[in-house]
Request: fold
Amino acid sequence: MKFNVTRWIIFALVAIAIIIPVMIKERITLPESSSSVVKNIYDFIEKLPEKSPIIISVDFDPSSDEELRPMIKALLRHAFRKNLRVIGMTIWDAAAGGTLINIFNEMGKEAKKEDGVDYAIMPFKPGGSSIILLLSQNVYDAYPKDYKNNLNKDLPVFKGIKTLKDMKYAMCVSAGQAVDTWIIYGKEKGKMPLGAGCTAVMATDYYPFLQSKQLVGLMGGLSAAAQYESLIKHKDTATESMKPQTVVHALIIILIIIGNIMYFTGKRKKA
Amino acid sequence: MPINELTSGQIIEAWLAVGFTLMIYSFLYKDNPVFKLGEYMYVGLTAGWGLCVAWYMVVWPDLVSPLSRVIGSYFGKQLEKPLEPHETLWLFIPLILGVFMLTRFSQKIGWLSRYTFAFIMGAVSGMAIPLVVSADIFKQMVPTLNPLWTSADASFLAIMNSFLILIGVISVLIYFFFSLEHKGVVKVVSKIGIFYMMVAFGASFGYTVMARESLAIGRITKLVNWAGKEYYYATIILFLVVVIFIVLYEIINRLKKQQTPPAE
Reply:
């Protein structure tokens, strides 16, 4: 077997660059700044009046949990602090169990909010785009009952809500195509303000939607979640993860420079 | 977290998570049976989870349960909350279309599945085409076609941004204009287009690296947390188990290779 030493050195360096900052428990203060696209979401939620209904679509599975869970947690903390009514849903079957229910209940408990009054969790329904279209026609056709089998019409959290148009804000946090689905079907029909959260890989795909004002704001990856945590002044896992992230970024820059030097010197030798 | 605060469920969960994470990470060394076991378990669990969600959250409550209540009431059986036939009889349509999908497995009646596919294609196209054209084409064209400066109070950066978009769109479009030979002015403009694309790919790659780092950081943070006394040193023990297994596997493999006579 050929043993690729260079590859192993890089793996080991990246592992060390992550493990050491993670093991240092002392809080390291990193400069706080937030990009305008993240701040737009914060500002929008901040300006909403109390008890405004908002909808959050949690569309990711455990494989993207590390990146997207901090985002949802920060958003929910902000929404609960502002006393907004939050409706949680998903169009992704993998988020149907633990992810959606777990995050909402955890944050609801932390903020001492009541299920059915301050927030509600919808069960998974297949169809994706058709569910969002149905929501834009009649919320109760799409979701007659919540995940606990309560009739949504009877829940105080749904007071005054008939269609997506009654939502003061919608947010889709997704690791797949759900953001596109929300832009195409939710925004076009529902006309409500829409924000998006996605993995860093997907972020560049959604920047054009900011310029066309189809999205209010965009959170891309863990760094955006850390920015949001700093905006709501509640530092959590995303902010903590910025320590190793900074070290790994520096390492990768150094490796790229070394790689380029090796490439060019090798080229000269060959010539 | 002190030991007494953790439930046995949390400890088992941590051990399973550590085990599977290390199994998958063992691919960094090379493809091996530990990785394969982790991979198969992941695929199997995902498929099983999907099936359970489809059955318990969709097929049972939305189709089987209401239909069984109608059928039950038809045969005079009083089940919980009987439904009127007109409320649920339409459910036979998706049921029949769903059954048609399964006919794909038969050569004789497989043609029936075409009705379902035709319905799905028609419905999805009908729903998607007007909205996609509006959201992805018309609304996306608007910021590109904006005037370069709209008012006296437009900031210098906003005007610069508009110019950059204009130059970028034109140069990239010209780069992809293959019916013209790329020489002279066309070559210069298409070169500018290449630079624009390089910037876009660079940004995309940078974000991709950041995403992978984030996932590694999240996993490693958990591995470090689960290495503690309260989790009975899950990470350390399972790491050693995986390493010992791979070393033994490698030794046995090499011995086998030495024993096998070389092919003539």
